[in-house]
Amino acid sequence: MFGLSDFIEGWFRTLLIDGITSNFTNMFEGLNTRVNEIAAQVGQTPQGWNSGIFNMVRSISETVIIPIAGVIMTFILCYELIQMIMERNNLVEFELSKLYTWIFKTFCAVLILTNTFDIVMGVFEMAQSVVNSSAGVIIGSLDVEVALTDLETQLEAMSTGALIQFYLESSVLQLAMQAISICVFLIIYGRMIEIYLTISMAPVPFSTMINREWGTIGNSYLKSLFALAFQGFLIMICVAIYAVLLGSIPTSDNAHMAMWTTAGYTLLLCLSLFRSASLSKSLFASS
């Protein structure tokens, strides 16, 4: 009788130990995969991330938004010309050089408007090169073999009740980590959607950049564009810090501590990514 109960208890303990080990393995391997996936996603330009969406946005912008931007630009330039004439007493004291300046500004405005997407993509290409260069700093990662070192020995030393509690904790924590992972990728994908929405309206603010009074619209847009582009760099810094923190977890000393420390670092990463957008806007003075 005692032999049967011991056999059942041993079998149950083996199931619990295998389940806990599996939870730890899935959790740690998932973390390493997540770090690499975030780095890969952030390093993409709008065109490289999804060329189909980019081409659609560009087509809509060129066929719908650019004509509207052209009308706005024409109104602004005509208004500026009228102001310039009125300031000089209806051409009585008008300097011909002012007219040449206005013509040059008109040429620059048309040039900027017709090359809007080239300018926008230039901003993101520059940001992408910075992001890809910073990818080399992500040298930390969680070594799964080291993380699981001595784990089975620690589990064997626990009572059956403690194993049950530990198994439930690790299972719940694994689900929580998956939920946090979903939040992280919602942030990454949400940023890309925001980029597509922003570049779709690029011709309108670009049409105002030449004028001194209206140019604040274009300048603010350009700041927000740089903030969106370099948010990817801040995300890479967050991921690099996260990777280094994972590599410093004392997994072999205390399995409980390792598990909850990993969860804390992952939650911290999620909160940091949420803050990256507002931080980037504040750095570029973009509201």
Summarize the structure.
The protein contains eleven helices and no strands.
Output the keywords.
287 residues, mainly alpha, 83% helix
- Portion of residues in beta strands equals under 5%
Largest sheet: none
Helix content range: over 70%
**Assembly status:** single chain
Q: What is the mean pLDDT? A: 78
Shape: rod-shaped
> Which H/E pattern describes the elements?
HHHHHHHHHHH
Number of helices: 11
Q: What is the CA-based Rg, rounded?
A: 29 Å
Broad structural category: mainly alpha
How many DSSP-defined strands?
Answer: 0
Task: Give the end-to-end Cα distance, rounded to a whole number of Å.
Answer: 74 Å
What this model shows, in words?
With 287 residues, the chain is mostly helical. The protein has a domain at 24-45 and 116-203 and 211-283. The chain is 83% helix and 0% strand. The chain has eleven helices and no strands. The chain has helices spanning 2-42, 46-49, 51-87, 96-114, 116-134, 144-147, 151-156, 160-200, 203-206, 215-247, 255-283. Helix 3 packs antiparallel against helix 4. The radius of gyration is 29 Å and the shape is rod-shaped. It starts with a helix and ends with a helix. The mean pLDDT is 78.
